[in-house]
Design a protein that fits this description.
The N and C termini lie close together (11 Å). This protein is α/β, with parallel strands linked by helices. The protein is built from 9 helices and 13 strands. Helix content is 32%, strand content 23%. Helix 1 packs across helix 9 (326-345), helix 4 packs parallel to helix 6 and helix 4 packs across helix 9. The radius of gyration is 20 Å and the shape is globular. The protein folds into 2 domains: 6-129 and 329-345, NAD(P)-binding Rossmann-like Domain (Rossmann fold, 3-Layer(aba) Sandwich); 133-324, Dihydrodipicolinate Reductase, domain 2 (2-Layer Sandwich), CATH 3.30.360. The strands form 2 sheets. The protein has a 7-stranded mixed beta sheet with strand order 3-4-2-1-5-6-7, sandwiched between helices. Strands 9-8-10-13-12-11 form a 6-stranded mixed beta sheet. It has helices spanning 16-27, 77-89, 112-115, 131-147, 165-179, 218-231, 265-274, 292-295, 326-345; strands at residues 6-11, 32-39, 47-50, 53-59, 70-73, 93-96, 125-127, 149-157, 237-241, 251-259, 278-280, 301-308, 315-322. Bound molecules: NADP nicotinamide-adenine-dinucleotide phosphate (NAP).
């Protein structure tokens, strides 16, 4: 890795995604000169460990970015909307995990394995897609390039960590409470800020984020619109149903995809086996298929249960699993930062 060192800020450093960003920066020996860890006033003054050193959390403010080269944001859309313009003004490259700028036509929406060239078309901010979108496009990109894609039907089985650190606590608390015979009071899910809450332990919730007027949830619309933007192809018909399940880490997706041209199953398997960021785990004879417990803590996207549809010869079914906090958020953001600094020095 590079010789030059960079001043880096992590905004939302105390959160579920921020924790993984810090872990990856340390593990990958990211060339950091100075590190700032930022949060809300609630966590300011707390300390975190980074590379065996203690760093003190500061409150994120508009003036926090002077002298910062790269800032990785995961503190919610409102914080990004407020602070990223100030950071850009200060000359900071912002890599944003939130929904704030993803559909902004001036902001590239990047998954390095799919449209990595877009990293270099930024105007100060690069958006990281939604976690569910990222793993789907990583799995579908090799098929898109070879055969074209006309239609995608996806149903998700999303882990509670996708809703942040408090949702993990909520699942743990409810599970322990119900096993102990206590009554549980849902507090966070389906989404902080919504008036009605539902139990997640021993349940599934077919709602992630707010409902829109068309009956889809915001999460479902993110998967639809972001897929078209990342693939650079608004003609792909996408429909999505997003469901929260009582799993802590790792989103799973059942995907039906219709390709534009005929295909052989051997070619599909070979493409998936050789695709960047994809690990093919697909052997019904030995019951090998991806599962969240195996994907947790890994940066790859795992694909299995690959089979031709029974009625549509150009239709393909598959099962795709990835760690939502890693490829779905922290790893995708750190990958973008690494590729950007490599080019600055190249
Ligand atoms: N979890 C995922 O799988 C995932 C995947 C992709 C994208 N994202 C996006 O990443 C963002 C964070 O997600 P998360 O799961 O890490 O949430 P989280 O665990 O709830 O953490 C939120 C972080 O944001 C900070 N924060 C909250 N309000 C703030 C404010 N006003 N100013 C500065 N910092 C503030 C919190 O700091 P305090 O400690 O001070 O509260 C905490 O560090 C969300 O926008 C989410 O949509 C999450």
């Amino acid at each position: 890795m590079s010789q030059k060192r960079w001043n880096v800020a992590v905004v939302g450093a105390t959160g579920a995604v921020g924790e993984q960003i810090l872990r990856l920066l340390a593990e990958r020996e990211f060339p950091i000169a100075q590190l700032k860890v930022l949060s809300s006033a609630r966590s300011a003054g707390k300390t975190l460990q980074f590379n065996n050193e203690t760093v003190t959390v500061e409150e994120a403010q508009p003036e926090s970015f002077h002298g910062v080269d790269i800032a990785l944001f995961s503190a919610g859309g409102d914080v990004s909307r407020e602070l990223i313009p100030h950071a850009i003004q200060a000359g900071t490259l912002c890599i944003d995990n939130t929904n704030a700028f993803r559909m902004d036509p001036n902001t590239p929406l990047v998954v390095p394995e799919v449209n990595g060239q877009e990293i270099f078309n930024h105007k100060g901010c690069i958006a990281n897609p939604n976690c569910s979108t990222i793993q789907m496009v990583v799995a579908l990109k090799p098929l898109y390039d070879r055969f074209g894609i006309s239609k995608i039907i996806v149903s998700t089985y999303q882990a509670v960590s996708g809703a942040g650190a408090r949702a993990i606590e909520e699942l743990n608390r409810q599970t322990a409470g119900i096993i102990a015979g206590d009554l549980v009071t849902p507090d966070i899910l389906p989404s902080a800020g919504l008036p009605v809450k539902h139990q997640i332990a021993f349940n599934v919730i077919p709602q992630i984020d707010k409902f829109q007027d068309n009956g889809f949830t915001l999460e479902e619309l993110k998967m639809i619109k972001e897929t078209q933007k990342i693939m650079g192809d608004p003609s792909i018909k996408v429909t999505s149903t997003c469901v929260r399940v009582p799993v802590v880490y790792g989103h799973s997706e059942s995907i039906y995809v219709e390709l534009k041209s005929d295909f052989e199953m051997e070619d599909v398997r070979e493409l998936l086996a050789n695709a960047p960021g994809v690990v093919l785990v697909d052997d019904p004879a030995t019951q090998q298929y991806p599962m969240p417990v195996h994907a947790t803590g890994k940066n790859d996207t795992f694909v299995g249960r690959v089979r031709r549809d029974l009625y549509e010869p150009r239709g393909l079914n598959m099962w795709v699993v990835s760690d939502n906090l890693l490829k779905g958020a922290a790893w995708n953001a750190v990958q973008i930062a690494e590729q950007w600094i490599a080019k600055q020095e190249g």
